[in-house]
């Protein structure tokens, strides 16, 4: 059994509880719907969760909506507007959105006992519900949405039985349905998080001209202003005054759906100014083992975001026993416990201060690294998310009490 | 004075002790506080499940709080508002039996009310409720010997469920362990000693378990 392999991390009792919860729900058919089969965190987690749910004897399916380029331009615009980064959504976008909801509702069998709809792209399918308990799983930051787009989407979301958000900050006062809080998770057995031999770590980082013998500051994220790449470079510069042999790796992937990405990358290259110890790497999105190796090679990991959804790269780093210096944004706040698993820093100056401190103090680094690993082990592994989804179903179906 | 290890295998009268465990669904309460005054109002208005979450989730060792404050309210006042003295007072409230959620609410209000002005936290306090989802375990104690052995090995969540959640949230008035020991074996002394343990003083399930076990051994072995 695949599920059994997680007992080494979370213990047999946790696995037993998951099995018992699943038994309570085994008569229910469960469907997950999202907008992409590969790429992105949602697809990544569903790829692992669905087989685990089936292994538990649950009748779980996963379906992906389709759309043309126009539809995905619309949903990308909605996405940015809901996260507060774009405004001015043309009126006809709403018609395009509705057209594709109808097409997908006609093509997909949605007659399940429990239906999880992930994110705004397929949220309008609820209009075509014939039966079942519908749960809207929101993976984005809804704390300061564009009011027009949100008020449009809210009409759909209000028709669900319940909604799930990552953290309370993203939950909404203007929704009258129950709002559950379930953080996302990492998979300790996936290529991005599995144990790697030290030799492989060394080999991979050397391939990119990084010296594993010298201190390494790492940020893994897209070249996006929300992740503050210029702030990272500045923090590195300030820290390097005290740690002259410090290296910086900023590891991102090209995002084809983000026209700003290239501009931000170019700005970052300019800010780096030819410093040979700054490595701005652009790797293909499936470079999981490379990300794993860099996280293991890092001395300190940074996630200096100004805005953030959850920021699972933080949990990935903590799992590898690396303390994280993170921005006070979104889900970073529940992963980086200030002074316990790392430090929260808003300015490049404070980020540099804590980076220098952690590089200098090996014992503190190790203690925080261990606390970080334990924090993730107790909260942010895939088995927790599986259990919490089962609990959400039990709650929606009023089966949470014995 | 201990009962003696030799007597522990005797089956007790009445029902065996079935261990359950509980996990908790977190629910947004639609209440937020920016200032001490709003925090006080929130504490007054919050339902039992919300207060329970902010007071007791720290026992389930989530590593979210540096150990010097025992509950979320104290943590926010100390770390976000920066009033250490008030934070310490909020942290040191008592949750021992027979305190109910309403008793604890009263104590929190009494501590906070005189200081509840417009001082704000660096970030807001978001109220969250928790709803227990109770799950059976395979652990059943038929004798005192079984019981003692199992308290050491059952999941930490199970200890918290029987010792805290049942009493405080489900309103049984007393922790399940004391009730079972007294009802089946007439062991009122050990039951009393367990009742005196204040769960609000613990930052992890394991330290709570350790003290329960120590108390049981003192009276039973």
Keywords:
heterodimer, A: 402 residues, alpha/beta, Rossmann fold, 2 domains, six-stranded parallel sheet, 15 helices, 12 strands, 44% helix, B: 221 residues, alpha+beta, two-stranded antiparallel ribbon, 2 strands, 19% strand, elongated
Explain how this protein is built.
The complex is a heterodimer of chains A (402) and B (221). Chain A has 402 residues and is α/β, with parallel strands linked by helices. Chain A has 2 domains: 3-185 and 381-396, Rossmann fold (3-Layer(aba) Sandwich); 198-379, Rossmann fold. Helix content of chain A is 44%, strand content 14%. Chain A contains 15 helices and 12 strands. Chain A has helices at residues 7-10, 12-24, 41-55, 69-82, 92-107, 147-157, 198-207, 229-240, 260-272, 288-297, 312-319, 332-335, 348-360, 362-379, 382-396, and strands at residues 29-34, 59-64, 114-118, 133-137, 162-165, 179-181, 216-220, 247-252, 278-282, 300-303, 324-326, 342-344. In chain A, strands 2-1-3-4-5-6 form a 6-stranded parallel β-sheet, with helices on one face. Chain A has a 6-stranded parallel β-sheet with strand order 9-8-7-10-11-12, sandwiched between helices. In chain A, helix 11 links the parallel strand 10 (300-303) and strand 11. The radius of gyration of chain A is 22 Å and the shape is globular. With 221 residues, chain B is of the alpha+beta class. Chain B folds into 2 domains: 5-18 and 140-220, no CATH class; 23-129, no CATH class. Helices cover 48% and strands 19% of the residues of chain B. In chain B, strands 1-2 form a two-stranded antiparallel sheet. In chain B, helix 3 (72-81) packs antiparallel against helix 4 (84-91) and helix 8 runs antiparallel to helix 9. Chain B starts with 16 loop residues before the first strand and ends with a helix. The mean pLDDT of chain B is 90. Classes of the chains: A alpha/beta (402), B alpha+beta (221).
